[in-house]
Amino acid sequence: MSIEVIFGQQLRKIREERKLSQEELALRSKLDRTYISLLERGKRRPTLNTIFALAAQLDIAPSEIVRIVETIFRKNS
After folding, report:
1. Counting beta carbons within 10 angstroms of the beta carbon of residue 9, is it exposed (0 to 12), middle (13 to 18) or buried (19 or more)?
2. pTM of whole model > 0.90?
3. Which CATH number fits the domain 3-76, given the four candidates 1.10.3210.10, 1.10.260.40, 1.10.620.20, 1.20.58.1560?
């Protein structure tokens, strides 16, 4: 499984845990809703700025998102 897919799965999981729609997360993070959708489907690679913007709105440290993705990626490699 690619890092992009794992990131997208975790982004969706965290967003849903916070009870946010893609639209609401997009508005809060000043990103396009379709971009959020593409990230969640593993179709785009987030920039560091994007990870920080999303993390701020999801009330999670950017490093925690990266740690989760890294842990899952290592298990699947």
Report:
1. middle
2. yes
3. 1.10.260.40
